[in-house]
Amino acid sequence: MSSHLTECCLFFKDDHLTFGWIAGEQKNKLIIQPFQGKELFLPENRLLMKWSIPVSITESSRIRILLEHQIHEIQEIRQQQDLQIIHELLVPDQEYTLEELAENFLDSPQPVPRLALLIALLEDNLWFKRTRHQTFIPRTSAELELIETQTRQARKLAAKSIQIQKWIMQLDQQQSLSVDDDPDLREWLQQLRSVLIQAKESPHWKEISTLMNWNTLERDDECKIRKWLLQSGMPVSWCRLLLEKSQIRDHVSQNVLEEATSIAEILHEKSPSSNAECLTIDSEKTRDYDDAFSVLSWNDQQLTIVVYITDVADRIAPESLVFEDARKKISTVYTLRQIFPMLPEILSNQALSLVAHKNRPAIAFTFEISATGTYQINAIRSETIQVSRNLSYNQADEYVRQETDYWPRLFTACQALMKRRIENGALELERREVEMDISNPDQIKIIPLDRNSPSNLIIQELAILVNHETARYLSEKKYPAIFRTQPPYEIVKQPQPGESLEMRHIQIDPARLTTVPGRHSGLGCDVYTQVTSPIRRFTDLIVQHQLKQSLANGPSLFDEEKLMVWAQQAELQQKTYAQIEREITAHWKIRYLSQHIGEPFKATILRHKHHATNIELKELLFVLSLPGLTSYQEGDEILLQIDHVDRERHIVQAHVVSS
User: Fold this and answer.
1) pLDDT tens for residues 33-45?
2) pLDDT tens sequence across 325-334
3) Nearest to 589 by CA among 625, 623, 639
4) Is 507 helix (H, G, I), strand (E, B) or coil?
């Protein structure tokens, strides 16, 4: 029987070292028969090494037997390779070929020892680096130390992963774990809390996400973390979670508080500039009164009215710590449980608030307003005022209903102001709001609010009047300020007969803060700013400072570039705050629904979207997304029964009981 040399080879297949032999050639590619598996077609440069063995061409089984014997021999010799010794005898960071290493460290030039050395080098992850040219570089001592550190960390992470799985199993089985007695457990829970609040911004995200196999933090993951924290005695409520996510700051530093206390102790010794009755109108819960008014004279044709805005700029200078703290907070944030004031409460609720029977500095805007809605501004100046009474909306509404003194004329004039704005393009939207009484969380109450009442309209129109005239004054003076603009809106769906115009009927872009004066389409104003809430909004405080400087013919305190930066910061942060306020309110409305399982709710079909339908519960002013219901038209009234509420995941299941 004749024999010849058959070539065997070593190559990578699916990242694994594979032995085989060359069975032929086809179209410039080698036909490779792996030791196990089907034939492959590979270019020659894909082979790591090839060598010859004597075998009959007709005996494939003979090739496999001989190759199997060599593989066994290679593995035995591979185990004997001491790469550490080889590494110590070489120059670190210098490149070596397999031939050079074999010549220096192998006793035999035969293929089997060379293959054993090659495989040892290829499988090594410590002593040598491999180049794409299949050469090898001894690692430096620094590289070896780094690898050793990484190896220790990997072992530690693996051990921690096993421990975490044990903790999770215990927590899921509602077993009690002692956090105080286990610092590793406490550390893990604290890391989870950080990830819960900051997600990928957390310094612990990389480690925790690896251990927990998370790509992103989904709501279900948040629910799991909150459950584990609760079980471990470290609860985080949804509301607290939302507040911390948005970085709402409820802490006032000691330095800021000391400065605020000093500001509050400054007595305002000037006497009130007028003896006219001065009033505020606000919610009964309000403590930070920032606007008031006096009606100086009235008849059937017109009124002379002064609108006062508390002069916060009189006390809070731009270089003060309180000013800088307000810049960081941007605005007061209101939630159902708590108020997070922009200014320390000693200022917002006391020293700068227009509380009754206290002398306060204010900016006074004097207007002549006719019964037909035309008006003239007579003066803007600094004054000292003393509020006579802090009225509630209900008290003011009662004065209008009883036609007391100037009240019906004031209401008529404000109605006319609104009518003129509507004629100038302002949106006339029905304002629907509810108040939630969560004093007893297990028995939440829903209280409808009348935002279209006479007193609400009076305060709305007087505020718009002051903001509009402040913007007009500053823009005409070409004085830098932060303006509020809004592009034109479009009515995309006409209301049905008898139906009021609502947001679902229109398409409108949100208002923007800018240093360039422009039209506010939603309010029907050719130019607009906000200056009426300097206690609650940082941008109002800035505009008040600029207005006072302009009235005094002084230089601008802030250049346009700084104002633009503040405007962008305020716009972004106020969007975040608004979203948080909506989410917290939604949380409590979901909780309210969970207390009324099986009860019917009046609802309106809003629109169909993909495979779901948006429905508004009228009592709650709350929108649900439910599957199906495609047989109903937009605007249809239905009666919806609540079947199930998942308070953690904010999922509501319901069905239509009648329409």
Assistant:
1) 998 889 999 999 8
2) 999 999 999 8
3) 623
4) strand
